[in-house]
Write a structure and sequence with these properties.
Length: 315
Amino acid sequence: MARSEKGTEYIKRPAPVNDEPFTSNPNKEYIRRAFDEPVVAQWFQRLGRPLKYLGLPAWQMLDIVAWQRMLGRFTGIERAENQQHLMFLNANVEDLEHRLYALYGNFDDILIRGRDLYGKTPDWPYDLINLDYFGGFLYSDLSRPRAFKKLIENQGAYSRSFLLIVTQHLRDKDTAKEKDKFLSDLGERLKGGVLDKKLHAQIDKIIAWYRDADLPDAARQGLYMNCFLREFGESAQFKVFCRPGVVYLGTGKASMIHFVTDFWFEPNIAHRATSDQSVLEIINLGLLQAENEALRDRSFSQPRLQLAGSKRANR
């Protein structure tokens, strides 16, 4: 929001966004059908009502159309004005316009500031949040992690459990060396939770494996994202359940990674929640790869971490 010389507030419209129109591909469609939809169906059955949705569905709204029988009202965020117009037209064609609530702007900014470029606010809380965005997770200003943290805190403020689906490019701009700092902290945290110091060598080994410059960054990013979501979820009183990251080649052979994570709110506590899934289990999740209508393990696999004598802190 800006002000004129007379002090009147007005909306500063963004410069036109020259985003390429979103196009899906067989790998993405397979993940939506075989990996995501069964989990969405579980949430639909468990809650016993249509799921309230927030996401970046693009104008085609492929996930909304595919899952519409399980969805109620949905909020779509779009930063390109022409794409938002197409989204409204498509919602009309699919007879979904009465369920669509649209926000205009960059989703990071909307989550951090709490409103879009027209002052409209997200319709908190949500049951299903699907963030499928261009670019990676880490940039020099770390704005995207701050946006995710705000999203989780907002859900916690309403005591609302939710399913989070995230899709992003493997290529990021981690100029702040965030993942390297994370690995250092993770190693120290694990050592602090192990009574037998003879086992510290195993921890050093697996941290060194993740730090290896020759290792595909998918492994580091898979571990970082799951630990990040668990960390901030528990801080907001959620028990978090992570699944293996799924890597695949997207449109234009872009290297992508996909996460599906449960956040179950723990009522009647003032302290940090403790997930049933331990840090050790998250480290040992590994990655899956979607290719040719199938999910398979990646060609590389990390050393498995098995620590006897670990404290509850490693949960």
